[in-house]
Structure formats: structure tokens, C-alpha cells
Amino acid sequence: MSATVRTRGSISRRLTLQLAVIAAFLALLSWGMVRSFSQQAAEQTQDNILAASATAIAEELRSEAGRIRLEIPYAAFSMLGAINEERVFYRVLSDGETLTGYDDLPVEQGARINGGVAFDTLSYRGDDVRVAMVQRTVFASERAVRVIVAVAQTRNAVDAISARISRAAALVSLAFFVLAAVLSFWAARVSLQPLTAITQIVSRRGASDLKPFETTAPQEIAPLLTALNRFMERLSSSLDRSEDFIAEAAHRVRTPLTTVRTQAEIALHSVTRSENKEILRRVIRAVDESSRSAGQLLDHAMVSFRTDKLTHSDVDLAELLGDVINTLRPTADMKDIRIRTELPSLWIKGDAILLQNALHNVLDNAIKYSPAESTITITLENRGAQAGIRVCDQGRGVDGADIATLTQRFRRGGNVGNVVGSGLGLTIANEVVHAHGGRLEMTGAQDGPGICVTLLLSLR
Ligand SMILES: Nc1ncnc2c1ncn2[C@@H]1O[C@H](COP(=O)(O)OP(=O)(O)OP(=O)(O)O)[C@@H](O)[C@H]1O
Ligand SMILES: [Mg+2]
Fold first, then answer.
1. Most Cβ neighbours (<10 Å): which of 97, 123, 172, 254?
2. What residues contact 195, with CB distance under 8 A and at least 6 apart?
3. How do residues 311-336 score in pLDDT, each as one tens digit?
4. Which domains are delineated in the chain?
């Protein structure tokens, strides 16, 4: 069972979000800056015109017969009209007294005006107005008269201009943000592309493929692949060690068992008392069972390792079956069992050693569980996408036991009687056919009590 990895968050989403937040902040900042610059520029323009207008009026100041006289030039107001339909006010003060203009226009007469132009924003007649004040000293009857020219204009146009620019800037900033968000999403995906590619390479690997990954990876991912390669190297050598260990252990168990069996056989022939003979027969049987178990365990371990590293070479099933039959023929001959075959040439891609092992176990069962002088029929047929190998015997049958339980490890049927076995043969055959993309079927023989075991193997 593979452990499920709990996912928490997504790098791609986090990256997109972070980049989008940065983009939003920059968009807001740029909007604020454009807005403030546009406001300043509009105000500056109005200030310049107001100052020019006030200066133009101040230029016309003169004294006549000890009095200050002023003829307001038309141009002074026409330049103000250039801005918009704004209301314009003016006031000229001579020594604090209104010479001409709007009497109630507030004019700051303090020191701020000294030496140039002063500006002020104030509320006048229900509107916000901007005032430019210019101070001049005019000599009348040899007396220096301080004259202040104040020109004011409503600020509606300035506000409208900066509002328009601010709106346009907001739209541009919004568009910039949307574009940046889309680009962030794209950038996040592109940045994670190598990770996706490596994930695909890893998941395409067969369960048994422990070869190191030889692929180029970005600097950040390379350590992960290196760690993975080291891990697989350790796993592979640990598997190899286990395989060697099992082979060694089985060998060490079987060798003394063979000796014990030989000694017990010799003893069996030399003792005369029937109870002693019985004891020795039981010893021989126990040794046979142990030896069979050790052999089958070794085969099962070998099958597990090989199915993990499955090779796909061309295998001639007819030839393979011929070899298996030849190996087991002496055992069949001892029981006078006839083996009938129908073996047309049929090739599959697979692991010959594993397939041989599986077939050996199935045929071994057929011989083991069949009575003397019976017939075993082995047929090989092409079933479209699958190759079918069918082994039918005239033996004792399995008496309703289902294939799922008999293929479990160490599971033996209730029909075994005194037949030696470990309950691993069908487990091995089943694992081999599954590794080859096939399945194992067990059905009752058409005539008589025997069974047919069919191995279905994928032809592709
Ligand atoms: N041809 C057959 N006829 C009757 N019963 C069978 C046949 N093949 C398998 N069985 C039943 O299925 C069981 C499982 O078979 P399996 O080959 O796995 O174990 P085994 O033959 O008992 O032991 P071993 O591991 O030594 O082969 C057997 O114990 C037997 O009951
Ligand atoms: Mg068996």
C-alpha cells in the first residue's frame, strides 16, 4: 500500500499570489504618484498664469498728481480665460485701502508677500479659489506707496483636470495590475515546469526501476534528484543483499536437510521394528516438507525480486513449455502420467525465467494431484491480445475452493491428503502472470473431476 502524501498549499498559487500582491502594490503606488504629479502640475500651471496676470496688472500701476492710477489691461484676464470657464476676482490695495476690485477678497498683507509673488488657497463666495498676490512700491508725490495686486480664480478646472488624469491613471494602473497578474501566473507555471517534468520522469518509472536519474535539472531541484538517486542506490544494494541472503539461507537450510534425509533413508532400511520405521517415515516427510518449503521460499523470493526488475525479452512459449515438460517428465513417468501437448509457436515479451517458474509450479501441481496413469493436456493458444496456456489434469479437483484463496501465500487446499507441499506454487504462478499483465484462471475439467489451470499473458 502506498502512503498518501498530504498536500498543503501550492507553490504555484503562492508564487502567483505573491507576485500579484507586489503588482497590486506597484500599481497603487504608480497611480498615487501620477495623481499627485498631475495635481501639482495643474496647480503649478494655474499659479503661473495667476502670477503672470497679477504681474501684468501691477506693471500698469502709475502715479498721477500724487495719486495711484491703474488701467487694468485686458490681456491680464484674457490669459486667465485660457484655463476654462472659471470665475476670476481681483483686488488692488494701495496702502491697505482697496483701489479697485472686489472689496471683500481676502488679501494677506503680511510679510509673506515681501519681495515677490505669494499664493494662497481660500474659500471665497462659496468656492475654493487660488489667489496670487504681487506687491509693488509706487512713488506718488515722493511718497512710497505699497500696492498689492491680488488675482484669484476658482479651482474647478484644476480639480477637473487632476480628476481626469487620476481616472486615466487608475485605469492604466488597473490594466497594468491585470497584465502583471496574468504574467505572474504564467511566470509561476513556467518556473515550476522543470519540477513537473521531473515528477513525470519519476512517475513514469516502473516500480522496479532503481537506475539513477540522469537528467538535467535546475540548480534548486538538482539536490532533490541527487538525494533521490542516493536513496535508490541504497535501496538497490539493500535489495541485492537481501536476495543474496535468501539464496544463501535457503542453501544452508537445504544442504543439511538433504543429509538428514539420506541418513533417515539409510536408517529406514536398517531398522526392523514397524514403529521405528513409522517414526523414520515421519522424519523423512518432515524433511521433505521443510526442504520443499525452503525451495519454494527461495523461488518466491527470486520471483519477487525479478518481477520488481522485470525484463522484456522475446520468449517462445512453445519452447519454454517443452523445457518445463522435459524437466518434470521423470516425475510424471514415475506415476505413469501421460502428458499430451498442443503447442503451436507463440511468442510473447517477458521474463523467461519467471515464466518457466510459473509453468513449472502449475505442471508440478497437475502431476502431484493427479492419480497414476492419468493424462495431463497442455495447450497453447492465441486469444487475440493474450496468450493462453492451459494445463488440464484428471486429478482430484479443488472441490469448490476459489482461486483467490489458493493463490494466497502458504494456503493449501483441503484436497492435499499426504501430498508434500508448502502452499506457495500458485502464489508464485499468480505473481508471475500479474507481472506480465495477465491473470490466472482455475476451472473444473470438462470431463471428470480434474481441473484446468489457465495462464493468460498479455501478448503486447
Ligand atoms: N492441479 C491441481 N489439482 C488439485 N488441487 C490443486 C491443483 N493445483 C493446486 N491445487 C490446490 O491448490 C493448493 C495451492 O497450490 P500450491 O501450488 O500453491 O501449493 P502446494 O502445491 O500445496 O504447495 P507447493 O508450494 O509445494 O506447490 C494446493 O494445496 C491444492 O490444494
Ligand atoms: Mg504446488
1. 254
2. 11, 221
3. 889 999 999 999 999 999 999 999 99
4. 15-163 (3.30.450), 207-309 (1.10.287), 311-460 (3.30.565.10)
